[in-house]
Each structure stands twice: as structure tokens, then as C-alpha cells.
Amino acid sequence: MDRMSPDRHDPYHLDIIDMLGVESSDDLAQWTQAWGRARYPMAAVRGIRVFPGRAARQRAESEEFAATDLRGLSDVVPISNDPLMLQALHTRSCRQEKSPEASRYVFPLHAAGEVRYAFDITLPGSAGAHRIAELADMAQAYFSRLASLETDPLTRLRTRRVFQSHVDASLRAWVQSDRAYYLAVLDIDRFKRINDTFGHLYGDEILVHFSNLMRRTFRSRDLLYRFGGEEFVLIYSVEPETAGAVPLERFRAAVESYAFPGVRTVTVSAGYAAITDLTTPAATLVDRADDAVYYAKEHGRNQVRCWEVLRDEGRIVSKDLGKDVTLF
């Protein structure tokens, strides 16, 4: 049968058509795991988020990869002593091993040179093996397309396109975990002056270095976005006993001490708000954090401000949007 003209009466191909209705790369990863468990109820199916490079080395000195569950709720642990998994991650391709009793398949989903997810499926015998290989190819092709739409080409951070669904996912995670969640807005100070003085090429280079600092400073599980221009948004979590300002202050100090090419010193103002209510719209959270950033810029720049503290002190007035408002 021509793979480009599937038989729509075949349940497998109906599943693939359903896959093409998934609208974000993260949702596609969740769909792929659900597909494996539904299609092969007797199989062992595991999906993981993969953190390459520094994210792994921070947690195990010589490891090249680390992983957590798809939702990012479990601890990040190194991937080691699993040759088949490591082979799949290194080659970015579906790998398999067979025995008389079972067949194991491992395939990654990657974009922009970085493996983001991996799936581990062990089947009794070899039934359905060709379907898994076909799924791996199709899922990777579609994942690449979705990821390219979600990634800012300059900074390689996520864009506003997937922000809403990520906020919803973080809220769900907050209910099920023992971590405290926050949303922050980061704004590079006097960025227009930098562009006007040094030119837009220097401005673009600052944005690249700034986004790289974000990746190095914040945790692998945190969600980083470029909203446009010099404005960035971050969804992050800390232990309940840790103040929400701690990661932001660490990043603010890292930016201030970093030698940006040509410009040398750059600073950032940050505002953040707590995610404490599942009914709070994403637009409201951004609006709160943005108010805190505006206050920081109006009162000296290069500082971190908390919306709740400013509200309680009467320094800003809440202007929350209605509960039914969304960003997009």
C-alpha cells in the first residue's frame, strides 16, 4: 500500500490521521506515548523528556544525557548503562534489539539538533514491529515541523505560539507536585539605546547571548520564551520553602556580570507573579508580571520585583483581566 495514501479503514492509519491534528510538539510527545499504550496494551511503553549536554552534566559529572518523565514532574536523572537508549540518542534514529521472547524499540524525537523526547517500547514477540518503525518516522517528521513553528529562529527559545498550552500544563503540574510555580517577565534594560548606538546586528547578538544565559541559569524543567523584541517570559518552579525571587536574582546577577560582545555591560529588569490558582488566565499572569517589570524599570532598573509584594504594599493597583480572557 502507498504510505502517502493510507487506507482510512485501517485503525492504525486512523491513528496517524489523528496525530496530524496535534498542534504542539509537547502534545505530540504525549500523543505518541498514549498511542503506544493504546495500540499495544501488552507492551511496556515509556516516554521520557531528554536533557542533553550541561543539563545532564549538572546532575552526573560525565553523563551526556539526563531524563525525566514526559510531564517533567519526576527528578532529572542521568541516562547511563542503557546502550540501546544511548545509541538511539546519539544517532537520533530508531534502534531495536530482539530476543526470542521480546522486541525492544527506542526512538527519539529531535529538533534543531537537540533530542527532546525518547520512547521505549518493548513488545512480546515481534508483532507490530513494522508499525513502530513507521510511527517513529512519521512522528519525527511532524515533530520537526511543529518545533520549527514554535521556536524563535534567533534565540532558539520557544515563541508565544505555544505559551498558552504550556501555562495550562504548568498549572496542572502545580496541582500534582510539591513545588511552587511562578511566571516571570524579563526585559533587557535600555535595549533601544543599544540598538540605536551600536546597531541592530549588535542588538541581535545581545539577544542570542542573553537567551544562552537563560538556558544556562534556569533549570531544565523551566519553560523559556521570547515574546518579542527584548521581552522574555519564564515559567519556573522552586521548592516551597524557596523564595520565588531566588532564581531571578541569580539570573539578574549573571547578566550584570556577563561581558556582552561590543557592549560589555547589560542589565535586566524582572517581574514575577505566583501561579496559585488553576482558574487564573495566562493573560492575567503575564499582566501581573509585566506590571512588576514596569515598576522595576520606573524605580532604577536592574532589579527583581514581585507583583504580590507590590500589590500588598499599595505600590501598584491590580487590574486583573476577566476570568474568561486568554492571550490568543
Question: Overview of this structure, please?
Answer:
It is a single chain. With 328 residues, the chain is α+β, with helices and mostly antiparallel strands. The chain has two domains: 11-150, Beta-Lactamase (2-Layer Sandwich); 160-312, Alpha-Beta Plaits. 41% of the residues lie in helices and 23% in strands. It is built from eleven helices and eleven strands. It has a six-stranded antiparallel beta sheet, with helices on both faces. Helix 7 packs across helix 8 (200-217). It starts with 10 loop residues before the first helix and ends in a 16-residue tail after the last helix. The model is unreliable at 1-9, 55-62 and 322-328 (pLDDT under 50).
Secondary structure elements and pairings:
Layout: H1 11-19, H2 25-39, E1 44-52, H3 54-57, E2 65-69, E3 77-78, H4 83-91, E4 95-98, E5 102-111, E6 114-124, H5 129-150, H6 163-176, E7 180-188, H7 191-198, H8 200-217, E8 223-228, E9 231-238, H9 245-257, E10 268-275, H10 282-298, E11 304-306, H11 307-312
Parallel strand pairs: 10-11
Antiparallel strand pairs: 1-2, 1-6, 2-3, 4-5, 5-6, 7-9, 7-10, 8-9
Helix pairs in contact: 2-5, 7-8, 8-9
Features:
disordered N terminus; alpha+beta; Alpha-Beta Plaits; six-stranded antiparallel β-sheet; five-stranded mixed β-sheet; 41% helix; 328 residues; 2 domains; Beta-Lactamase
